[in-house]
User: Fold these one by one.
Assistant:
Number 1:
Amino acid sequence: MIVEAKGLKKRYNSVWALDGLDLAIADGEIYGLLGPNGSGKTTTILILLGLTEPTAGEVRVCGYDPVRQPLAVKRLVGYMPEKVGFYEELSAYENLRFITRLNGIPEAEANRRIGEALEHVGLKDVAQRPVATFSHGMRQRLGLADVLVKKPKLAILDEPTSGIDPEGAAQILDLIRRLRDEAGMTVLLSSHLLHQVQRICDRVGILHRGHLVAEGRVAELTAPGGYVARIGQASPILRARLEAADWTHSVEEMQPQELQVTLTEGGRAELLRFVAEEGGVILELRPKQPTLEEIYLRYFQG
Amino acid sequence: MRVIVWKELADHLGSRRFFILSLIILVVAGTSVYLGIQGFQQNPAAVQEFPYLRLLTTAPGALPSFLSFLAFFGPLLAVLLGFDAVNSEFTRGTVSRVLAQPIYRDAWINGKFLAGLGTLGVVVVSIVLLIFGLGLFALGFPPDGPELARLAVFLVVALIYLGFWLALGILYSVLFRSPASSALAAVATWLFFTLFLYMIAGVVADQVVPVRADSPAEAWLRNENLRNSILRFSPVALFEEATLPILVPTYRGLSLLALLAQPGVPTNPLPLGQSLLVGWPQLVGLLALTSVCFAAAYLGFMRREIRTS
């Protein structure tokens, strides 16, 4: 486990930003920390980096305690903050150069790494331009380059795609996946944009009011649960019988005489029997696969 | 920390505000030297005693001497270097990115302070060297050992004084979230200490110990002492009191008693050690102010939560 946290709590004044968070991330994973704004994502990240002390609980990052050995952790972890900022009057190259100096990377090695990183994120041509002239998407990619020059074991990216158009976001996500595949980096990213995260994360954790409400592989969380059926020419008697059955979740009249029924795994054979007995046409019968979106809503509306 | 110092130093020296302020200081310093040299021409006897130090302290005519000019405008330069040191990093969003690198948190604020001090050092030293260079042209002989020694001490004191204002600027940049309000607060403090406190001290002293032309000498003395005590709350006054004995070797203290006694005692220059002793309490006070101010900024920064939103 590259990240392990147990019972993390953090209080800002009178507000509990984190309330008993448990987190475990394995080597080489892309882990997505999901949650609406204010659910404690950034606080979790700052604690992992040793930039904020937890009020209670234990943390290990790469085997070190960020509270007691912050430098050891910061040497191994790359971090891209949510609103990543640069020194505007310095060029992209100079900004990265400052970071490599702070990390004590020797000159020649640093130049090579900066070149590679800028190449990776597609900013090689504008390396000498001041960051003040960069667009939001370019800054975000520079933020990634900033993480890359450190060659970290763990990259923590806070909302890497926020405020970027879908195309740019897709580029960044591809880049993140490539980094994991090529450099073997573990990635922890936070986001409130589910459909993006769904695409690249191995596992996700859904954070709500300071603790995880659900966690698992994207495929597990979105595992099919039951079926959805559309029935045409349905009689009122069929509708009444379906509503009364204990294997249906919901029966809705979409159009006159057309029903949409959600049912449990075992209810399929029953449904067919009902339709055969009462008359009606099955227009569609498909396994119901919830998107993360639905899971998300399930937790945050309830 | 070296990395941070170099970066900040480069930022300062390349910045526009630094350029403009140094230009102002340079121009006025040049003018006061010019006037000082004219003073020598009117009063050739003055050249005999520490002519180079005189260049820094005497000012015939309306313009202030270089010393009072440094006491007045130096703080502005120092405060301007510091007022956005920390809060601008927060508004730019560079704080968490930099602090996520393997450096100790205090290395950052220490580095910023040292870089500011270095910048101020460069300005003050180069202006003084410029003045001496111009003096060399006008006088035709180089400064001697005692003069250089006094100059070196003066530079150290000046740096401590400017360090106070720099630390004050950095303190405000920690306390205030927006650079605009910390700049305002810094300028307000500067105005208070350079102008208003002088007025307040005079008013308070006259209220507590009223004096008229025919008042006894004791009343005058008490009035003067009270005024000085109040003024000593100001680093500006402390600086002037601490540096005068260094730059004016015959100077024996600010008290009225010393001034009254002046005709009686010989006006021979004091040795450097004795001159230092005259201004020693003020010097220590100045150093203490600087340390306290920086310590406050340091603590404020170390306890500050990184979270911006």
Number 2:
Amino acid sequence: MRVIVDLEKCCGAGQCVLLAPKVFDQRDDGIVILLDEHPPEAVREAACVCPGAAIKLEDLA
Amino acid sequence: MSTESSEQVLDYPLRAHAPLEPPEEWAKLRQGCPVAHVRLPSGDQAVLLTRYADVRQVLADPRFTRQLGQEGAAKLSEDGGSVFETEEAASLTEGHERWRRLLHKSFTAKRVSAMQPRIEAMADQLLDDMVRQGAPADLVAGLAFPLPVWVICELLGIPDIDRDKLAFWSNAMLNMTQFTREEMQQAQVEFAEYMTAHIAAKRAAPGEDLLSEMVAAVDEGHPLTERELMMIGQGILVAGHETTSNTIAKMMAMLLSERSRWEQLVADPSLVRTAVEEALRFDANAGFGLPRFITEEIEVSGQKLPGGTTVVCNMAAANRDEQAYERADTMDLTRSPNPHLTFGVGPHSCVGQALARTELQTTLNVLLRRLPTLALAVPTEELARREGLLIGGLERVPVRW
């Protein structure tokens, strides 16, 4: 799985960091930092509940 | 959708027949009239959206502006005194752009998680008092009302000794039923005087708190003005107190009103996180919703809305949309994922949502640990609704244990 974040859409809610702290972090202004582009853990919930719809997942075949 | 149903004008807000139940119209509107015409308390008309997809689309689209003060926008209330109606007030409730970026620093998930032990200690302290006074007790007065003010005081670096003053002012500024207009204005004046002195004190001797950070912050070369700092303090109180207090009260009422829900959590406290999200989704008494105003024609749900339309997004109705959720009318404490719209979506979604989540989760965890036998002390239908400024609530939640 590959994670893609859209910094323009990110609204800094921090849901992804609360749900998957090993994969996501936040800058001082709240905007997402992607720590792990190919995480072993499932981050589907973080992608689904992102209020900015800023997290996309690509399934790698 | 029939033309007839779209031409009916409903009085808004809609009323529910029971304290924790949604208005009966929600399901009908979602089904047959997703773009409904409503009459607001002011007498002005607006369009009401109740479907998940529509509410989500509108809140994320900047063409649906928050400028309710514009020529042609519907007035919400009779006296025009609603929090949404002035530019200043809109920025109060949702956070002006300029400060919003700065504020994020204090509300990141990590910063909020670091506050969690303090929040837990505060909840424990409040419960000590409540338990000492014995059952029955009012969970609103004992816990739900004070806890968020205590947290805000901590955030703003306000000493513990002044917490009760802040709580009183906040209540008087927000509670439309218990206080007169004069008392409301008096509270505003006293709060402003207090904050002016507090900001000056932080300027002289900065601490580790949000206000000290804001005093030191420089945004694009400009430090924040005294007035902006004041607005930040007031904005955090307005946006963070009533909303969180009411949500704690409603969450507990929902969980206790069906014994099996509470017992499920007592048996498995690891469900607290998803239970809180579900309480946020399931809350049928969430208040007015978010109003928006358009100046150009935009299509929603296949209907063209003309420029000059005021649109009310009812997130709570959208959260019960069967098209978005399986068993939408069932409170499922294990529901995941749960992309509810309660905090809004898009660039204006609630800046304090990580803090709100942490307060709700902490409250629930502490209550489960301390009072596993907790129960409502009155029948659910006797819970009295409170009409809030930003969000609906309950006047009291009497409990025993």
